[in-house]
Amino acid sequence: MLPLLLLLIVVLHSHTCRSVTVSTSKPKVEIHEHTDAVLSCEFKTEKDQNPRIEWKKKGKGVTFVYFDKKFAKSYAGRAKIEGATLTIHSVTQKDSGEYRCEVTASEDHVNLGEAIVTLNVLVPPHVPSCEVPGSVFVGTGLELFCKDKLSVPPATYRWYKDNKALTASGDAPYSVDTNKGTLKFKSVSREDSGMYRCESSNSVGAPKSCVAKLLTVVESPWNMTMLIAGASGFAALVLFCCICVCVCRRRGYCKKSRKTKSAKSYNPPPPPPPPPNRNLKHYKQTQSFMI
């Protein structure tokens, strides 16, 4: 009875051990952009000598990298596989993500095993975009912006004025956020005029800087408003005077035109008709006398 029981245990034990095992020697891979990334995947089967190997990438959905002994279109020509280990050539930031190595051994009792590898592609700083206005008014608040959206890990920032680094001390009239890349002034003065630029940096590559831009601080808007109002008032006064002169000249011309027209249009009244029943000769003489 005892030997039979031991044989049963051995059989059951051997049956449960017939399964595929999958592992990775490096579950997290950090690699610089445009270099080769090696995603390791090792497997062991108990019986199946030709298991099916697949690689998948997890993003918004799950996409195939390697399936049916072929690479997907975006990986064709720039990836290779040795055993189950995947190598991607000249990686970019788009290649970052979670990859899953799946090995299916159909002849094993537990026929599926998997290992997960996270790839993080490191990107050196790029030239940041800098927002610096051309001019501002004295006494107004001001915020300058700097951003590098491509660097991995995220960049930190430093602002320069006339090639001198700005550090926010206790009595400085500005504040600097090195993580967000902002430079804030509570109230600018004429002394804040100058050439401003921003520099982004991280642990991957050399810092990059934007082109310096000129910031000019001019007089306050109240002075400008008074100047504009004065100029507008003067222009309105000149326009009013011109209108008055034109009206006066127009009226004088109209009166003169009326007199001239009246003189030209005067005609003497016609002579009276001859009286009835009078001597025609006497009438003619009278007419001659009148003339």
From TrEMBL:
One of its GO terms (biological process) is leukocyte cell-cell adhesion. The keyword Chaperone does not apply. Residues 3-111, 125-216 form the Ig-like domain. The chain crosses the membrane at residues 226-248. Residues 259-291 are annotated as: Disordered. Keywords: Membrane, Signal, Transmembrane, Transmembrane helix. Residues 267-277 have a biased composition (Pro residues). GO terms for cellular component: cell surface; plasma membrane; protein complex involved in cell adhesion; tight junction. The keyword Transmembrane applies. This is Junctional adhesion molecule 2b. It comes from Fundulus heteroclitus (Killifish). The lineage of its organism: Eukaryota, Metazoa, Chordata, Craniata, Vertebrata.
